[in-house]
Amino acid sequence: MSHELTIYRGTFIHLPRLEGGLTTSKLKLIRNRGALWVSTLDGRIKGFDWDAHDEGSFRELMRVNGWVDVDAQTNGNSDHVKVKIVTSNEERNEFFFPGFIDTHIHAPQYPNAGLFGSTTLLDWLETYTFPVESGFGKTNTTPSNKPEDAPPSALRVYDQVIARTLSHGTTCASYFATVHVPATNALAALAHKRGQRAFIGRVCMDNPSFCPDYYCDASAEESLESTKSTIEYIHTLDPKGVLIKPIVTPRFAPTCSRPSLKALGSLAASYTPPLHIQTHISENENEVALVKELFPECSSYAGVYDNYNLLTERTILAHAVHLTPEERQLIQKQKAKVSHCPASNSALGSGIALVRTMLQEGITVGLGTDVSGGYSSSILEAVRQACLSSRLVGHTTKYVNENPQPDGSEKLSVEESLYLATRGGADVVCMGDDLGGFDNGMIFDAQLIQLGGVCEDVVSLDVSGNGVSGDELSVRGGPVGNVDIFGTETWEEKIQKWVWSGDDRNVKAVWVAGRMVHERV
Amino acid sequence: MSHELTIYRGTFIHLPRLEGGLTTSKLKLIRNRGALWVSTLDGRIKGFDWDAHDEGSFRELMRVNGWVDVDAQTNGNSDHVKVKIVTSNEERNEFFFPGFIDTHIHAPQYPNAGLFGSTTLLDWLETYTFPVESGFGKTNTTPSNKPEDAPPSALRVYDQVIARTLSHGTTCASYFATVHVPATNALAALAHKRGQRAFIGRVCMDNPSFCPDYYCDASAEESLESTKSTIEYIHTLDPKGVLIKPIVTPRFAPTCSRPSLKALGSLAASYTPPLHIQTHISENENEVALVKELFPECSSYAGVYDNYNLLTERTILAHAVHLTPEERQLIQKQKAKVSHCPASNSALGSGIALVRTMLQEGITVGLGTDVSGGYSSSILEAVRQACLSSRLVGHTTKYVNENPQPDGSEKLSVEESLYLATRGGADVVCMGDDLGGFDNGMIFDAQLIQLGGVCEDVVSLDVSGNGVSGDELSVRGGPVGNVDIFGTETWEEKIQKWVWSGDDRNVKAVWVAGRMVHERV
């Protein structure tokens, strides 16, 4: 039986929306308990009642609005509005939280997650990345835009990476695909099918000096035409861009010819509204030196992108570890966005981005997993790594050069990292009005987190030496994953425990635009 | 029916034993496939046959040795030796790996795992640590050495931390308890009951200037007597120290009076062999400055411990982040050991220890979780963090001061981090002849790792817009946790995937001295 609304009941936790961005350091989580309702038609939040926490006031809310539970065995009344009710379990420490937004992830590299050895960026690309990406299709064959022309192994990887990121609570992701049109379109189709909100970028790389001969666009023209082909496919798949949008994706300056950079900047600007753009910037010191050498006419790495109209308010710049103060100023002026990828930056030894500095200068920052420079497809892991690396940045030469006396303000709190993972990410994809929180009118992209019950209290001290057996061999009590609740924690401390010890086991269900897209079974 | 031997069949992976310690950077994992047998009597490895991999040669091995499977329905023959057979499943990517050794963990702080805010060491102790530890008993009450006099909440926490660490594959842990004798003895009793190998240390802290008034030994004498009481209890519980051993535990120099430090050094030396010792050193720069101020007569922080005969070859020094070259030299000379706690050092912003430098100078290093300065009770997480922080250390001022041109040699490989977690840890607790690998004669402390099967290949591209439902909502295929195997990986790459994406879900079973102490259900 269809229903007009879904009523979510229980505990809702999110971050406040900061119009000026995350410039304060005293950010607090907001917790509301009651009911929130979402339209089936458009997946948007139509209202909430934080007084309807107990059973009586909830029934009154239902009565006043003329709502009837679609799952209850009652006689239909044509005056009534059918609603579905989803309830979080307080005793199991469940709560609704905004879905995570992954602002930078390479879908085809997923099979390489965890494989990087001791390489750094440029040799990692050659050793691990280009070989795996080249397996997603053939270049220089008859042009096709059909997803079914992608290799079966590509479909398998793309389906798995979408399933995995959803299982980690990622409701929206900005994907780099490969150069191949069929496989890129298949990624769009699979995300659409599974119901994940996604930006899909065919990777542009046409500079033979910095691309391997087996994996390279044949020319700037081909790069442009192939990109247009994926944009058209996506615009046919999802004409209104409800879930899936194209994103113009020059890999990074060294792999793109000047004509290609120029054409892609113009291409993005030719649409109304202009298309989103994503690329990499200043991840690694050797890369920065290389760009300086390749583009002597530009003032800086950021200046290269600006020069080709690729530094727009709809541009996502991944990494931004080694920006100069002047580059940060330019990025802020152009309102381009930054995807902070701490797990990747640590794994590849790239360094630690000056996140606090960028935030205080008014740059919009979100989090990215950067699979597979990053080893994990979980944004919760990115939240942890953002906290950890911010606690180490004060020990780095780069930070100390700008701040001779670190005072601890460089550290990101759990709340701030969660802000970057939700509200921040929403701003990075220019959807801050629609995503990232439970504000009235926003789209319900959310996850139901379950920490589990309180650990049992009865422990036997029988030390007869016979040891334990059977059930006793396992961890006892209520936890569903690694989060142990002892019953003495405040609710804020439970969130901290979730951030530091949680994983996909704690993600009980995930919704995108009010549609359930993942359920833990 | 009892059995004399257990035969473990399948794949065994471990690190080679390096007598000179981990000074090479070309460490490789060893993989053997076949059978290995362990005596029920003493839990030691009595032999192996790496030719007995296929069914035929295994049956021949059984026949030649006169072994019969205790679980098979055969008639007994008194000439035959009854054996139990445990087999790893190749298709599920299962393998045996040595148990992890956690060389530094604070059991009572486990309820605080993940709670530390943005504090650093000294304020973290006051805000989080001392309050939780003080709840493990009352000071200044009638002396008792009975575990049952510990508060029920203490038993619950201790039982959970043992269960959790076992579930992560930790077969041996060196625990800090609290100042309280009954609860400390309960920790020993519970570890003994669950079958975890453990060093149990009652914490000594008698300096009222640096201990809170609500949580402090009354005097150096009381500190000594209480310590003796736990030592006696443990020697009664496990007279031969098969599983549980006492360890003398001055918290760290600032919390201990000179008479206490002196008495504890003498106490450890008064036993044959001398008792193990554990403490903290040079975790944080403010702490280093404080020690310098408090002990102006000593040459250095390490010098304080050396001065009181606490820097022995049976001493575990936790952290060692800010040691001077002279201190490292002293530690190496005295053969004291270092517990590297990377998750904690990042979480509390302490800095990054110069692990490669210490290793190359001949210092023995193992890994510690340092719960709850460390947020995770998993040594696999410590392995990851050791790799990650070693990839960042080249960006730190401290490292660059000693090595103006980092050349990448500071990075720890996955293999090296796993060495620290097994062989290294065994050397840190002076059991390198007994633990850390599958060498003949060693004690079988091991874990059975299960990565799961290869991801399924069939993906539908049906983009009718009806989306997925039911089973399809979940991650498909063979994985048991977050490790995805696509079938193209080498076995070494599977190990890397385990290290970077694995968790307790991949720990199928754990044995200590051949006794199963954890099984994933």
UniProtKB/TrEMBL annotation, chains A, B:
It is an enzyme of class 3 (hydrolase). Keywords: Hydrolase, Metal-binding, Zinc. The keyword Hydrolase applies. GO terms for biological process: guanine metabolic process. GO terms for molecular function: guanine deaminase activity; zinc ion binding. Its EC number is 3.5.4.3. Residues 97-517 form the Amidohydrolase-related domain. SUPFAM superfamilies: Composite domain of metallo-dependent hydrolases, Metallo-dependent hydrolases. It catalyses: guanine + H2O + H(+) = xanthine + NH4(+). It holds the Pfam family Amidohydro_1. One of its GO terms (cellular component) is cytosol. Its cofactor is Zn(2+). Pathway: Purine metabolism; guanine degradation; xanthine from guanine: step 1/1. Belongs to the metallo-dependent hydrolases superfamily. ATZ/TRZ family. Catalyzes the hydrolytic deamination of guanine, producing xanthine and ammonia. This is Probable guanine deaminase. The lineage of its organism: Eukaryota, Fungi, Dikarya, Ascomycota, Pezizomycotina.
